[in-house]
Amino acid sequence: MRNAFHLYNRTPRVVCRKRFGLYLAAAALFLCIFSPMKAHANDGAGLLWLVNTEHPLHEDFEPRTLVTVGQQRMDSRVAEAYALLTAAMQEDASVEGNRTLYLYSAYRSYARQNDLYNERTRHYTSQGFSRNEARERAAQSVQPPGASEHQTGLALDVSSTGALNQAFGDTPAGVWLAANAYRFGFIIRYPQSKVHTTHIIYEPWHLRYVGLEAAVYIMESGLTLEEFTEEWRMELVEYEFQL
C-alpha cells in the first residue's frame, strides 16, 4: 500500500507526461485499494472494476447506490447516463426504424446469477454434455455467480428488438449504440472481435458503464476492459521502476 500512496502523491510529476497516464495511474490506485474480491456488502462499485471469473465479487456484495428505473435496479450513475443516451438516440433522425431501447436486465444479485447459471448448465447437461463441459459452455453466455458485471449495478442488457440476440448489432439502433455509447460513459463490453480476450460470446446488447473519460479512451484505443486493466497495471509497474 505504501507504493500506492507514493503513486498518488507523485503522479503529477512523473506519469502526467504520458497521454492519459494520470488517469491510468489514478485507476490503478483506486483498484489497488478497492478490489472487487475484497468488496463487502453495501460497498459502492468502482467504475473500473474488472469483474469476471478471475476477479469475482463476494456473494454478499450489493452496491449501496442502486436506484429503480422502470422494473430494474441499477447504479444511480448508470441511471443518469442511460437516460441521456436513450434521449440522444430518440432525437437522432439518422437512426432508421425503432429508436426505442428496451431495458431487459440491470442489477442482478449473486443468488439470481447462480440460478441463471445453473439453469444454463442444466440445459447443456440435458443435451448429453458432461457436467464440466456443460459448465464451460454455460459460462460463455452466462457468467457464474460472482463473475457477472450485473452484480455491480453498472451493466445493462438492452435491445430495440423483442429479444437479446447478436442480430441486434446489425440493426440501426445497434449500430448507433456501438458508435455512440462511449459519449455517455458506456462501452460494448463483449465485442465481436475480442471473444478471445473476454472469453464471452459477442453481446451487442451488453453495456458496461465505466465513466466518460475511460469510455472515450477505451473506444479510441479499441480495448476491452481486460486489456485496459492490463494497460494500467503496466503503467503502474513502469512508474514504480522510476521511484
Task: Please characterize this protein's 3D structure.
The chain has helices at 2-14, 21-33, 76-91, 110-125, 131-138, 172-180, 195-198, 212-221, 225-241; strands at 66-69, 72-75, 102-105, 155-159, 186-190, 203-209. The strands form 2 sheets. A 4-stranded antiparallel β-sheet has the order 3-4-6-5. Strands 1-2 form a two-stranded antiparallel sheet. It has a domain at 40-108 and 148-221: 2-Layer Sandwich (Muramoyl-pentapeptide Carboxypeptidase, domain 2), CATH 3.30.1380.10. It is built from 9 helices and 6 strands; from the N terminus they run ααββαβααβαβαβαα. The longest helix is centred in the C-terminal third of the chain and has 17 residues, at 225-241. It is globular, with a radius of gyration of 19 Å. The chain has 243 residues and is α+β, with helices and mostly antiparallel strands. It starts with a helix and ends with a helix. A hairpin with a 2-residue loop joins strand 1 and strand 2. 44% of the residues lie in helices and 12% in strands.
Morphology call? globular
Give the ordered list of helices and strands.
HHEEHEHHEHEHEHH
* Largest sheet, spatial ordering of strands: 3-4-6-5
Radius of gyration: 19 Å
What percentage of the residues does DSSP assign to strands (E)?
5-15%
Number of strands: 6
Mean pLDDT: 85
| CATH fold type of the domain at 40-108 and 148-221 | Muramoyl-pentapeptide Carboxypeptidase, domain 2
H/I helix tally: 9
Question: Whole-Å distance between the termini?
Answer: 14 Å
CATH top level of the domain at 40-108 and 148-221 is: Alpha Beta
Helix percent reads 40-55%
Q: Note the quaternary state here.
A: single chain
CATH architecture label of the domain at 40-108 and 148-221: 2-Layer Sandwich
Class from helix and strand fractions: alpha+beta
- Tell me about the biggest sheet? 4 strands, antiparallel
Query: Unreliable runs, pLDDT <50, ≥5 residues?
Result: 1-19
